[in-house]
Design a protein that fits this description.
The complex is a heterodimer. By secondary structure, chain A is mainly β. Chain A is built from no helices and nine strands. Chain A is globular and about 35 Å long. Classes of the chains: A mainly beta, B mainly alpha. Chains A and B meet through loops of A and α2 and α5 of B.
């Protein structure tokens, strides 16, 4: 599953922190594991990066934006991808287990 | 023979506690309790899916079936790998008896009354199982993989309890 993350929103203000896309050469791919009812830490991101969430848990989980910007629904063993297209901070949670929460910051 | 037993309270079918003298269930007994607790909740959820027309309640019930089936499949694979045969005990028997009584009670209800009773019981049930996991089952587990699965189960069931409490508040 691939979801576009067109913008990361500043949570406090809701303002969009749009920036120009960086050169493709600078882009990196980060793998974040979901296991034992927890999201792994998302490293600092740059616009243009890709984050691959891998659900290694035995449960179905989602990576759902707190402000409905993106949603990955991942069955056990599946992976989903977010493309970071703008700078900012985003928080996310699992729709099925809302106590599972995470965040990411892109510069 | 396992000494841990749950006392069924008169106030709520699943409001149970582990008495002070309860101690050290074996891994085989713990596996049986955990598996039984999961199966009973799956059965309750399937009953809800047959009866309830409330989307919030049905979504919750589907989550219970999905998550508990996943835990139980993992538990079965683990006991097979460890060559452990789950052993019936007074705690799993008490849980089953209480669940039978609750199922019969729910069987007489329909509509909003059914939804309220099902969700109220789900809150109490998860609270009970979580208490037992924390106070007795996890500390008593000897095998590291079993302990880890129980710890993941506790995190999951705490989510279920919170979800059930949320649904209960919503359908009041």
């Amino acid at each position: 599953m691939v979801a576009r993350l067109p913008t990361l929103c500043a949570a406090a203000t809701g303002a969009l922190l749009l920036v120009a896309a960086p050169a493709p050469a600078a882009a990196a791919t980060h793998v974040v594991t979901i296991d034992k009812m927890k999201y792994g830490a998302v490293p600092p991101l740059k616009t243009g990066d890709t984050v691959v969430f891998v659900n290694k848990d035995i449960f179905r989980h989602t990576v759902t934006s707190s402000n409905n910007r993106f949603n990955l629904d991942l069955m056990p063993g599946k992976r989903g991808t977010l493309h970071i297209n703008s700078a900012g901070r985003a928080t996310f949670y699992c729709k099925y287990h809302p106590g599972m929460r995470g965040s990411m910051i892109a510069k | 023979m396992m000494r841990a037993t749950f006392l069924i309270s008169a106030a709520a079918a699943f409001a149970v506690s582990v008495p002070a003298q309860a101690a050290n269930p074996t891994d085989a007994q713990i596996a049986h309790i955990a598996y039984t607790a999961g199966n009973l909740d799956i059965a309750a959820a399937k009953q809800a899916l047959k009866v309830s027309k409330n989307k919030t309640v049905r979504d919750f019930a589907q989550e219970m079936v999905r998550d508990h089936e996943a835990v139980n499949a993992k538990a079965l694979a683990l006991v097979k790998k460890l060559h452990v045969t789950p052993e019936a005990n007074t705690t799993s028997t008490s849980l089953t008896k209480a669940a039978d009584a609750e199922r019969a009670k729910l069987g007489k209800l329909k509509g909003a009354a059914f939804d309220r009773e099902y969700i109220t019981n789900e809150v109490a049930y998860h609270k009970t199982v979580n208490g037992a996991l924390k106070s007795t089952l996890i500390p008593s587990a000897n095998n590291g993989e079993l302990k880890s699965l129980l710890e993941t189960g506790l995190t999951l069931f705490q989510e279920h309890q919170a979800h059930a409490e949320h649904v209960a508040a919503k359908i009041k």
